[in-house]
Specification:
Blueprint: E1 3-9, H1 13-18, H2 20-24, E2 32-38, H3 41-49, E3 55-59, H4 60-63, E4 70-73, E5 78-80, E6 86-89, E7 102-104, H5 110-119, E8 125-126, H6 132-137, E9 143-146, H7 150-153, E10 160-164, H8 165-173, E11 177-185, H9 190-209, H10 211-221, H11 227-237, H12 240-243, H13 247-262, E12 275-276, E13 284-288, H14 290-296, E14 302-303, H15 306-310, E15 314-315, E16 317-318, H16 322-329, E17 335-341, H17 343-346, E18 350-354, E19 360-364, E20 368-369, E21 373-382, E22 385-386
Parallel strand pairs: 1-2, 1-3, 4-12, 7-8, 7-9
Antiparallel strand pairs: 3-11, 4-11, 5-11, 6-9, 6-10, 13-16, 13-17, 14-20, 15-19, 17-21, 18-19, 21-22
Helix pairs in contact: 5-8
Length: 400
Amino acid sequence: MSERLRVGISPCPNDTFAFAGLLSGAVKCEGATLDFELLDVQELNVRLARGEFDAAKASFHAALRLTRETALLSAGSALGFGVGPLLLARKGAPKLDANARVLCPGEGTTATLLFQLFRGPLHVEQVVFSEIMPALEDGRADFGVCIHEGRFTWRERALEFVEDLGARWEAEFRCALPLGGILFRKARGRDLAARLSSAIESSITWARANPKLALELMREHAQELSDEVLWSHVDLYVNAETLCLSNSARDALVTLSAQALRLHLLPPGSPALEIWGRTEAMRLFHVMGARDTAGLVLPGGTWRPPSLASEGFVHLSFAAQIEGTLTAHFAGVDSADLLEIDPGSAGAALRYETSRAGALFPHLYRELRAADIKRLWPLRRLGGRWDLSAVSAGSEGPAD
């Protein structure tokens, strides 16, 4: 018997891209029927808090307030690397002080938390995000914290840039900025949460393999934006962390929670945000010859394989893909080194893209560095087969 899930997401390109497989019907959630609503993120925050959704995209600021009732799915999150909400001003705006009129996109948004963290305490007015830039443009407000497509279109409105709050977050805290994620009502159970999280992984994989079809869905819900802006949005906010949160991303959530507590935005003693779906981050690997490894593992060592020059990235593999990589590229040798790579160290340089036979593969768009290596194993071919027994069980890779 199929269970019904009320699911809310935003119409922003990063959400409609990540959920394109599910929205189109090309991907199904095992044993569940999904009823979607697409709404402004602050409306999602409010309605989720009222219990109107089983799962919904929510700002991480709001998520930290709902930790008793909801858990975060390991798939579907948006984290920024050096990017995030922009603080903008109208032309000729006065000094940013208590007399200025400042607009934010919702009391529960991460954007509001960042403004309070870096620019507070100042009084702000909360409005729907789409009203902020028009209000700045016609002089009804002095400053505004802009999210979503505002990051890409503010110049066209002749507004003035004040600060990238996401870049400031990363500079001060040395971690990605948690923007929003998919919250799941705990009362519906871990099994159903795991199935939905797996379906989101499959939906992202489908969108990567079918970009033209995914673009049609993005256009449908953001018709005023150019294709270039749509893809820019996806490139920034649908990254490796969207498929599965790394350990570094999970640490970033702890940092955000600590700052929210410091600002008295959460009740003392609030429970930690639980992550359901994949309890462990996906594991990534790179296979290379022992001679090349010797130089990489030195302090400050790097590795620039030929693929970095010819294709622009270093080929990596999920655990389940290691054997295929060895068969395809190490057929004539009997030994190699297997390096496990920390996905959290790569930041925005790590992307998951379709490659061999349409499967999703991890690609690193920079040189491999000694600091990226979590552990290393020498591999040997025994009886015609590679011995991979050293690679213990774990989160092997995305759902098909």
